[in-house]
Design goal:
This protein is of the alpha/beta class. It has two domains: 1-79 and 369-428, Urease, subunit C, domain 1, CATH 2.30.40; 80-367, TIM Barrel, CATH 3.20.20. It is 29% helix and 22% strand. A hairpin with an 8-residue loop joins strand 7 (133-138) and strand 8. It is globular. The termini are far apart.
Length: 428
Protein backbone atom coordinates (compact mmCIF):
# COMPACT_ATOMS: atom_id res chain seq x y z
CA UNK A 1 0.00 0.00 0.00
CA UNK A 2 2.83 2.38 0.89
CA UNK A 3 4.43 1.66 -2.49
CA UNK A 4 1.18 2.63 -4.24
CA UNK A 5 1.03 5.87 -2.24
CA UNK A 6 4.60 6.69 -3.25
CA UNK A 7 3.77 6.11 -6.92
CA UNK A 8 0.66 8.27 -6.69
CA UNK A 9 2.60 11.01 -4.94
CA UNK A 10 5.24 10.90 -7.68
CA UNK A 11 2.57 11.13 -10.39
CA UNK A 12 0.94 14.11 -8.65
CA UNK A 13 4.34 15.79 -8.36
CA UNK A 14 4.91 15.32 -12.09
CA UNK A 15 1.49 16.75 -12.89
CA UNK A 16 1.88 19.84 -10.71
CA UNK A 17 5.47 20.59 -11.75
CA UNK A 18 5.07 19.90 -15.48
CA UNK A 19 3.85 23.45 -16.15
CA UNK A 20 6.57 25.17 -14.13
CA UNK A 21 9.37 24.73 -16.64
CA UNK A 22 8.94 25.70 -20.24
CA UNK A 23 9.56 23.22 -23.01
CA UNK A 24 12.96 23.49 -24.68
CA UNK A 25 12.56 25.34 -27.97
CA UNK A 26 14.83 25.95 -30.94
CA UNK A 27 13.99 28.91 -33.19
CA UNK A 28 15.96 28.66 -36.41
CA UNK A 29 16.46 30.39 -39.77
CA UNK A 30 15.34 33.77 -38.38
CA UNK A 31 16.73 37.25 -38.71
CA UNK A 32 17.62 37.80 -35.05
CA UNK A 33 17.82 41.36 -33.74
CA UNK A 34 19.73 40.57 -30.55
CA UNK A 35 20.14 44.23 -29.48
CA UNK A 36 23.43 43.18 -27.93
CA UNK A 37 27.09 42.93 -28.90
CA UNK A 38 26.10 40.00 -31.12
CA UNK A 39 24.39 42.44 -33.48
CA UNK A 40 21.81 41.26 -36.01
CA UNK A 41 22.18 37.65 -37.17
CA UNK A 42 20.79 36.52 -40.52
CA UNK A 43 19.53 32.92 -40.61
CA UNK A 44 20.31 32.70 -36.93
CA UNK A 45 19.00 30.50 -34.15
CA UNK A 46 17.93 30.93 -30.52
CA UNK A 47 17.87 27.99 -28.13
CA UNK A 48 15.49 28.32 -25.18
CA UNK A 49 15.84 26.18 -22.06
CA UNK A 50 13.89 26.36 -18.80
CA UNK A 51 12.40 29.68 -19.81
CA UNK A 52 15.79 31.30 -20.45
CA UNK A 53 17.85 32.06 -23.54
CA UNK A 54 20.47 29.31 -23.59
CA UNK A 55 22.33 30.00 -26.85
CA UNK A 56 22.21 32.45 -29.75
CA UNK A 57 24.15 32.08 -32.98
CA UNK A 58 24.24 31.26 -36.65
CA UNK A 59 25.56 27.69 -36.99
CA UNK A 60 23.73 24.94 -35.12
CA UNK A 61 26.50 22.57 -34.01
CA UNK A 62 24.56 20.55 -31.45
CA UNK A 63 21.88 17.86 -31.33
CA UNK A 64 18.37 18.94 -30.41
CA UNK A 65 15.23 16.83 -30.11
CA UNK A 66 12.79 19.35 -28.62
CA UNK A 67 10.29 21.71 -30.25
CA UNK A 68 11.61 23.45 -33.39
CA UNK A 69 10.16 26.66 -34.83
CA UNK A 70 11.27 27.29 -38.39
CA UNK A 71 11.23 31.08 -38.73
CA UNK A 72 12.40 31.29 -42.34
CA UNK A 73 11.54 34.73 -43.71
CA UNK A 74 10.70 36.00 -40.23
CA UNK A 75 12.35 38.28 -37.66
CA UNK A 76 12.87 37.88 -33.94
CA UNK A 77 13.24 40.75 -31.48
CA UNK A 78 13.13 41.02 -27.72
CA UNK A 79 9.64 41.68 -26.41
CA UNK A 80 8.73 45.33 -26.84
CA UNK A 81 8.58 47.92 -24.04
CA UNK A 82 6.47 51.07 -24.03
CA UNK A 83 8.17 53.52 -21.68
CA UNK A 84 5.13 55.65 -20.77
CA UNK A 85 1.69 54.03 -20.38
CA UNK A 86 -1.42 53.76 -18.24
CA UNK A 87 -1.79 50.01 -18.85
CA UNK A 88 -3.91 48.33 -16.20
CA UNK A 89 -5.19 51.69 -14.95
CA UNK A 90 -7.77 52.47 -17.63
CA UNK A 91 -10.44 50.17 -19.00
CA UNK A 92 -12.99 52.56 -20.49
CA UNK A 93 -11.88 56.17 -20.60
CA UNK A 94 -15.40 57.55 -20.35
CA UNK A 95 -16.25 55.52 -17.24
CA UNK A 96 -14.79 57.11 -14.12
CA UNK A 97 -14.99 53.87 -12.11
CA UNK A 98 -12.45 52.29 -14.44
CA UNK A 99 -9.93 55.15 -14.19
CA UNK A 100 -7.11 54.92 -11.66
CA UNK A 101 -4.43 57.15 -13.16
CA UNK A 102 -4.41 60.01 -10.65
CA UNK A 103 -5.71 61.28 -7.33
CA UNK A 104 -7.14 64.59 -6.21
CA UNK A 105 -6.49 63.72 -2.56
CA UNK A 106 -4.06 66.33 -1.27
CA UNK A 107 -2.74 63.86 1.28
CA UNK A 108 -0.60 62.24 -1.42
CA UNK A 109 2.02 63.70 -3.75
CA UNK A 110 5.37 61.98 -4.38
CA UNK A 111 4.26 59.12 -2.12
CA UNK A 112 1.29 58.25 -4.37
CA UNK A 113 2.20 54.77 -5.62
CA UNK A 114 0.23 53.61 -8.65
CA UNK A 115 1.15 49.89 -8.47
CA UNK A 116 -1.74 48.74 -6.22
CA UNK A 117 -4.26 50.00 -8.78
CA UNK A 118 -2.86 47.99 -11.72
CA UNK A 119 -5.40 45.38 -12.79
CA UNK A 120 -3.87 42.12 -14.13
CA UNK A 121 -7.30 41.13 -15.49
CA UNK A 122 -7.61 44.21 -17.70
CA UNK A 123 -8.76 43.28 -21.21
CA UNK A 124 -6.27 45.83 -22.54
CA UNK A 125 -3.29 43.71 -21.48
CA UNK A 126 -3.76 40.64 -23.76
CA UNK A 127 -4.72 42.98 -26.60
CA UNK A 128 -1.32 44.67 -26.36
CA UNK A 129 0.54 41.43 -25.66
CA UNK A 130 -0.60 39.66 -28.83
CA UNK A 131 0.71 42.68 -30.74
CA UNK A 132 4.22 42.16 -29.35
CA UNK A 133 4.24 44.35 -26.24
CA UNK A 134 5.64 42.34 -23.33
CA UNK A 135 6.70 45.06 -20.86
CA UNK A 136 5.56 48.57 -19.98
CA UNK A 137 6.22 51.42 -17.61
CA UNK A 138 2.93 52.35 -15.93
CA UNK A 139 2.86 55.95 -14.77
CA UNK A 140 0.50 58.04 -12.66
CA UNK A 141 -0.87 61.29 -14.04
CA UNK A 142 -0.70 64.60 -12.16
CA UNK A 143 -3.81 65.17 -10.11
CA UNK A 144 -3.71 68.12 -7.72
CA UNK A 145 0.03 68.84 -7.86
CA UNK A 146 3.04 68.60 -10.15
CA UNK A 147 4.41 65.43 -8.47
CA UNK A 148 2.24 62.68 -9.95
CA UNK A 149 3.74 59.87 -7.86
CA UNK A 150 5.65 56.61 -8.23
CA UNK A 151 5.38 54.55 -11.40
CA UNK A 152 5.75 50.78 -11.85
CA UNK A 153 7.33 48.41 -14.35
CA UNK A 154 5.10 45.55 -15.46
CA UNK A 155 5.47 42.41 -17.51
CA UNK A 156 2.44 41.49 -19.60
CA UNK A 157 2.56 37.80 -18.78
CA UNK A 158 -0.68 35.87 -18.29
CA UNK A 159 -0.40 35.71 -14.50
CA UNK A 160 -2.05 37.23 -11.45
CA UNK A 161 0.96 39.45 -10.79
CA UNK A 162 2.39 41.70 -13.49
CA UNK A 163 4.71 43.81 -11.35
CA UNK A 164 8.47 43.80 -11.98
CA UNK A 165 9.03 46.79 -9.70
CA UNK A 166 6.52 48.93 -7.80
CA UNK A 167 8.75 52.03 -7.80
CA UNK A 168 10.79 52.50 -10.95
CA UNK A 169 10.67 56.29 -10.92
CA UNK A 170 9.06 59.40 -9.49
CA UNK A 171 6.94 61.14 -12.12
CA UNK A 172 6.31 64.88 -12.29
CA UNK A 173 5.33 67.61 -14.73
CA UNK A 174 7.23 70.76 -15.71
CA UNK A 175 5.21 71.58 -18.80
CA UNK A 176 2.34 74.05 -19.07
CA UNK A 177 0.26 71.55 -17.06
CA UNK A 178 2.77 71.68 -14.21
CA UNK A 179 2.61 75.46 -14.41
CA UNK A 180 -1.19 75.35 -14.08
CA UNK A 181 -0.88 73.08 -11.04
CA UNK A 182 1.55 75.54 -9.44
CA UNK A 183 -0.58 78.65 -9.61
CA UNK A 184 0.07 79.57 -13.23
CA UNK A 185 3.82 80.17 -13.44
CA UNK A 186 6.79 77.98 -14.28
CA UNK A 187 8.76 79.99 -11.76
CA UNK A 188 6.50 78.60 -9.03
CA UNK A 189 6.80 75.09 -10.50
CA UNK A 190 10.59 75.21 -10.37
CA UNK A 191 10.58 76.73 -6.89
CA UNK A 192 8.23 74.01 -5.60
CA UNK A 193 10.37 71.20 -7.02
CA UNK A 194 13.58 72.69 -5.71
CA UNK A 195 12.15 73.46 -2.26
CA UNK A 196 10.77 69.92 -2.04
CA UNK A 197 14.24 68.49 -2.60
CA UNK A 198 15.86 70.94 -0.16
CA UNK A 199 13.31 69.95 2.48
CA UNK A 200 13.91 66.26 1.77
CA UNK A 201 17.66 66.77 2.25
CA UNK A 202 17.05 68.50 5.58
CA UNK A 203 14.61 65.79 6.61
CA UNK A 204 17.17 63.07 5.85
CA UNK A 205 19.86 64.86 7.91
CA UNK A 206 17.49 65.10 10.88
CA UNK A 207 15.46 61.98 10.25
CA UNK A 208 15.41 60.66 13.83
CA UNK A 209 14.41 64.03 15.28
CA UNK A 210 11.71 64.37 12.65
CA UNK A 211 10.32 60.91 13.32
CA UNK A 212 10.20 61.64 17.06
CA UNK A 213 8.12 64.74 16.42
CA UNK A 214 10.85 67.35 16.76
CA UNK A 215 10.61 68.77 13.26
CA UNK A 216 10.13 72.08 11.57
CA UNK A 217 7.34 72.71 9.09
CA UNK A 218 8.13 71.46 5.60
CA UNK A 219 6.64 72.20 2.21
CA UNK A 220 5.47 68.55 1.90
CA UNK A 221 4.21 66.08 4.52
CA UNK A 222 6.77 63.64 5.93
CA UNK A 223 5.54 60.64 3.95
CA UNK A 224 6.08 62.62 0.73
CA UNK A 225 9.57 63.64 1.85
CA UNK A 226 10.30 59.94 2.49
CA UNK A 227 9.27 59.21 -1.12
CA UNK A 228 11.76 61.82 -2.38
CA UNK A 229 14.76 60.20 -0.65
CA UNK A 230 15.28 57.40 -3.24
CA UNK A 231 15.35 60.12 -5.91
CA UNK A 232 17.88 62.22 -4.02
CA UNK A 233 20.02 59.13 -3.44
CA UNK A 234 19.84 58.25 -7.16
CA UNK A 235 18.19 54.90 -6.44
CA UNK A 236 15.36 55.74 -8.84
CA UNK A 237 15.07 58.42 -11.53
CA UNK A 238 13.01 61.58 -11.56
CA UNK A 239 10.93 61.33 -14.73
CA UNK A 240 9.58 64.76 -15.55
CA UNK A 241 7.55 65.96 -18.51
CA UNK A 242 8.94 68.98 -20.33
CA UNK A 243 8.91 70.13 -23.94
CA UNK A 244 10.23 73.69 -24.20
CA UNK A 245 13.96 74.33 -24.57
CA UNK A 246 14.05 76.74 -21.63
CA UNK A 247 12.26 74.21 -19.41
CA UNK A 248 14.67 71.42 -20.36
CA UNK A 249 17.62 73.65 -19.48
CA UNK A 250 16.11 74.44 -16.09
CA UNK A 251 15.75 70.72 -15.41
CA UNK A 252 19.38 70.11 -16.38
CA UNK A 253 20.30 72.79 -13.84
CA UNK A 254 18.20 70.99 -11.22
CA UNK A 255 19.86 67.67 -12.11
CA UNK A 256 23.30 69.13 -11.57
CA UNK A 257 22.40 70.79 -8.25
CA UNK A 258 20.96 67.62 -6.68
CA UNK A 259 22.90 64.98 -8.67
CA UNK A 260 19.67 63.38 -9.89
CA UNK A 261 19.07 60.49 -12.24
CA UNK A 262 16.92 62.57 -14.56
CA UNK A 263 14.72 61.30 -17.41
CA UNK A 264 12.81 63.84 -19.49
CA UNK A 265 9.49 62.78 -21.01
CA UNK A 266 8.06 64.53 -24.05
CA UNK A 267 10.96 66.74 -25.14
CA UNK A 268 9.32 67.97 -28.34
CA UNK A 269 12.02 70.64 -28.57
CA UNK A 270 14.74 68.38 -27.14
CA UNK A 271 16.52 68.18 -30.48
CA UNK A 272 17.47 71.84 -30.08
CA UNK A 273 19.45 71.00 -26.91
CA UNK A 274 20.46 67.47 -27.89
CA UNK A 275 24.14 68.05 -27.19
CA UNK A 276 23.36 69.31 -23.69
CA UNK A 277 21.12 66.32 -22.96
CA UNK A 278 23.79 63.91 -24.20
CA UNK A 279 26.52 65.64 -22.19
CA UNK A 280 24.40 65.39 -19.04
CA UNK A 281 23.61 61.71 -19.72
CA UNK A 282 19.86 62.34 -19.56
CA UNK A 283 17.65 59.78 -21.34
CA UNK A 284 14.53 61.05 -23.10
CA UNK A 285 11.12 59.40 -23.44
CA UNK A 286 9.81 60.54 -26.79
CA UNK A 287 7.02 59.85 -29.26
CA UNK A 288 8.79 59.98 -32.66
CA UNK A 289 5.50 60.75 -34.41
CA UNK A 290 4.69 63.85 -32.34
CA UNK A 291 5.36 66.43 -35.03
CA UNK A 292 2.57 68.96 -34.46
CA UNK A 293 2.55 71.53 -31.65
CA UNK A 294 -0.28 70.66 -29.27
CA UNK A 295 0.41 73.88 -27.34
CA UNK A 296 2.97 76.67 -27.14
CA UNK A 297 5.46 74.35 -25.41
CA UNK A 298 5.93 72.36 -28.61
CA UNK A 299 6.33 74.91 -31.39
CA UNK A 300 9.57 73.33 -32.65
CA UNK A 301 8.26 69.73 -32.84
CA UNK A 302 9.44 67.85 -35.94
CA UNK A 303 9.38 64.29 -37.29
CA UNK A 304 13.15 63.81 -37.31
CA UNK A 305 13.58 65.00 -33.71
CA UNK A 306 14.34 61.47 -32.47
CA UNK A 307 17.02 61.00 -35.12
CA UNK A 308 18.64 64.32 -34.29
CA UNK A 309 18.76 63.46 -30.59
CA UNK A 310 20.10 59.98 -31.32
CA UNK A 311 22.82 61.38 -33.57
CA UNK A 312 23.89 63.68 -30.73
CA UNK A 313 24.24 60.68 -28.40
CA UNK A 314 21.00 60.93 -26.38
CA UNK A 315 19.61 57.62 -25.09
CA UNK A 316 16.03 57.42 -26.34
CA UNK A 317 13.07 55.54 -24.88
CA UNK A 318 10.01 55.31 -27.11
CA UNK A 319 6.36 55.61 -26.27
CA UNK A 320 3.42 55.13 -28.59
CA UNK A 321 1.68 57.21 -31.19
CA UNK A 322 0.52 60.60 -29.90
CA UNK A 323 0.57 59.39 -26.27
CA UNK A 324 -2.16 56.80 -26.94
CA UNK A 325 -0.53 54.87 -24.19
CA UNK A 326 -3.15 52.43 -22.98
CA UNK A 327 -5.35 50.54 -25.41
CA UNK A 328 -2.88 51.15 -28.24
CA UNK A 329 0.38 51.02 -26.29
CA UNK A 330 1.70 48.47 -28.79
CA UNK A 331 1.81 51.25 -31.40
CA UNK A 332 5.21 52.08 -29.96
CA UNK A 333 6.39 49.86 -32.84
CA UNK A 334 4.79 52.19 -35.38
CA UNK A 335 6.48 55.12 -33.65
CA UNK A 336 9.84 53.34 -33.94
CA UNK A 337 9.18 52.70 -37.62
CA UNK A 338 8.59 56.41 -38.14
CA UNK A 339 11.88 57.20 -36.42
CA UNK A 340 13.67 54.77 -38.75
CA UNK A 341 11.94 56.33 -41.75
CA UNK A 342 13.41 59.70 -40.73
CA UNK A 343 16.95 58.46 -40.44
CA UNK A 344 17.38 56.57 -37.18
CA UNK A 345 19.17 53.20 -37.65
CA UNK A 346 16.75 50.27 -37.45
CA UNK A 347 18.59 48.50 -34.63
CA UNK A 348 18.69 51.73 -32.61
CA UNK A 349 14.96 52.27 -33.14
CA UNK A 350 14.31 48.74 -31.86
CA UNK A 351 16.70 49.35 -28.96
CA UNK A 352 14.65 52.41 -27.96
CA UNK A 353 11.66 50.14 -27.29
CA UNK A 354 13.57 47.18 -25.79
CA UNK A 355 16.95 47.54 -24.10
CA UNK A 356 17.01 51.31 -23.48
CA UNK A 357 13.89 51.34 -21.27
CA UNK A 358 15.16 48.24 -19.46
CA UNK A 359 18.45 50.01 -18.74
CA UNK A 360 16.87 53.30 -17.68
CA UNK A 361 14.38 51.65 -15.32
CA UNK A 362 16.62 48.93 -13.91
CA UNK A 363 15.51 45.58 -15.34
CA UNK A 364 18.06 45.06 -18.13
CA UNK A 365 19.69 42.22 -16.19
CA UNK A 366 16.75 40.01 -17.19
CA UNK A 367 15.01 41.64 -20.14
CA UNK A 368 15.51 43.90 -23.16
CA UNK A 369 17.95 41.94 -25.34
CA UNK A 370 18.49 38.45 -26.74
CA UNK A 371 21.48 37.23 -24.77
CA UNK A 372 22.42 34.04 -22.98
CA UNK A 373 20.97 33.83 -19.49
CA UNK A 374 18.20 36.37 -19.96
CA UNK A 375 14.51 35.54 -19.69
CA UNK A 376 13.14 34.26 -22.99
CA UNK A 377 10.65 37.05 -23.74
CA UNK A 378 10.65 37.22 -27.54
CA UNK A 379 8.47 38.15 -30.48
CA UNK A 380 8.58 36.33 -33.82
CA UNK A 381 7.41 38.73 -36.53
CA UNK A 382 6.12 37.63 -39.93
CA UNK A 383 8.27 40.26 -41.64
CA UNK A 384 10.46 43.25 -40.90
CA UNK A 385 9.70 44.28 -37.30
CA UNK A 386 9.25 47.97 -38.18
CA UNK A 387 7.05 47.54 -41.24
CA UNK A 388 3.50 48.76 -40.65
CA UNK A 389 1.83 45.63 -42.08
CA UNK A 390 4.06 43.18 -40.17
CA UNK A 391 2.29 41.24 -37.44
CA UNK A 392 3.43 39.24 -34.44
CA UNK A 393 3.34 35.59 -35.51
CA UNK A 394 4.18 34.29 -32.02
CA UNK A 395 4.82 35.91 -28.67
CA UNK A 396 7.02 33.95 -26.29
CA UNK A 397 7.31 34.73 -22.58
CA UNK A 398 9.47 32.72 -20.19
CA UNK A 399 10.15 30.37 -23.09
CA UNK A 400 6.47 29.54 -23.65
CA UNK A 401 4.16 30.70 -26.42
CA UNK A 402 1.39 32.86 -25.02
CA UNK A 403 -2.15 32.53 -26.43
CA UNK A 404 -2.71 34.95 -29.29
CA UNK A 405 -6.18 35.65 -27.94
CA UNK A 406 -7.83 38.77 -26.57
CA UNK A 407 -11.34 40.03 -26.06
CA UNK A 408 -11.13 41.59 -29.52
CA UNK A 409 -10.22 38.30 -31.22
CA UNK A 410 -12.94 36.42 -29.33
CA UNK A 411 -15.56 38.97 -30.42
CA UNK A 412 -14.23 38.75 -33.98
CA UNK A 413 -14.57 34.96 -33.98
CA UNK A 414 -17.95 35.00 -32.27
CA UNK A 415 -19.57 37.24 -34.87
CA UNK A 416 -17.62 36.15 -37.94
CA UNK A 417 -20.44 33.83 -39.00
CA UNK A 418 -23.76 35.68 -39.01
CA UNK A 419 -25.77 32.85 -40.55
CA UNK A 420 -27.22 31.44 -37.35
CA UNK A 421 -30.77 31.17 -36.06
CA UNK A 422 -30.04 33.10 -32.86
CA UNK A 423 -29.90 36.88 -32.49
CA UNK A 424 -26.33 38.22 -32.11
CA UNK A 425 -26.46 38.59 -28.30
CA UNK A 426 -27.02 34.82 -27.87
CA UNK A 427 -24.45 33.49 -30.27
CA UNK A 428 -21.46 31.68 -28.80
Amino acid sequence: MSKLIQILALLLLCIFTSGIYAEDVLIKNARVYTISDLGTIDNGYILLKDGLIDRVGKTIDFEFDGKVIDATGMSVTPGLVNAYTHLGLVEIGAVSQSLDVSTEDKLFGPSFKIAPAINPASTVIPHNRLNGLTHAIVVPAPGHQLFAGLGAAIRLENTDSLIISESVGLFADFSSLGSKLSGGSRAATYAKIRQSFLDAQDYEKNIEKNRSGDWREYFLPLHDLEALLPVLNADIPLVITAHRVSDIRQLLKLQKEFNLRLIIAGASEGWLVADELASAGVPVIVDPMANLPRDFDQLAARLDAATRMHNAGVSLLFTGVSWRNTHSAYLVRQAAGSAARYGMPVTEAIKAMTLNPALAFGFADRFGSIEEGKTADLVIWDGHPLELLTRADRVIMSGKEVPMVSRSTRLRDRYRNLNTSYPPAYRK
